[in-house]
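Just wondering, can you check both lines?
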Amino acid sequence: MENLTYYIAALLMIIIGFFLIKRVVSCLLKSIITIVLIVILAALYYLYFR
């Protein structure tokens, strides 16, 4: 069940990230959003699979 929660959270992050990046025009904001999503996904990975 924990893996299912991880995959659902990762899928939501990818969908939300894609939607935000599609809507945002500035390269700087795209970079910041991408870095934040990578950090969140890395934290989830670390918490669930360490």
Q: What stands out?
A: The mean pLDDT is 82. The longest helix spans residues 27-49.
